[in-house]
Design a protein that fits this description.
It contains five helices and five strands. It is α/β, with parallel strands linked by helices. It has two domains: 40 residues, no CATH class; 68 residues, HAD superfamily/HAD-like (Rossmann fold). The strands form two sheets. It has a three-stranded parallel sheet. Strands 1-2 form a two-stranded antiparallel sheet. Strand 4, helix 4 and strand 5 form a beta-alpha-beta unit.
């Protein structure tokens, strides 16, 4: 669902979760709202990758810029938030960077 601004997206996601949270989850994502089945998130996707692959979790880097990235950032040790992300997103991440290129340069 496309919204006019980030505040509207956050408010709509909260309302959807309040009324329909037993079956779906709404994640605010900048100016849109992502709606997924209950229990599905970027974090549950990362759990799947870590469970069913031989990928070493130390070699995984995650970066996020909005609320829908919080479950993913909570799952990995190397988590980064873009500096323009909401404060709540930055607080979950291990570090904040100005761009994806900065993340890559820091870890090459």
């Amino acid at each position: 669902i496309s919204m006019g601004n980030q505040t509207d997206a956050l408010e709509l996601a909260n309302q959807i979760n309040h009324f329909f949270g037993s079956t779906i989850t709404a994640y605010p994502n900048n100016f849109v709202v992502d709606i997924v089945p209950k229990g599905v998130s970027k974090g549950s996707g990362m759990d799947f990758v870590l469970t069913y692959s031989s990928v070493d979790d130390d070699s995984i880097y995650a970066i996020g810029d909005s609320y829908n990235d919080i479950p993913l950032l909570e799952q990995v040790e190397n988590s980064y938030a873009i500096a323009t992300a909401p404060e709540e997103v930055q607080e979950v991440a291990s570090e904040t960077v100005s761009s994806i290129s900065e993340l890559i340069q820091k870890n090459m």
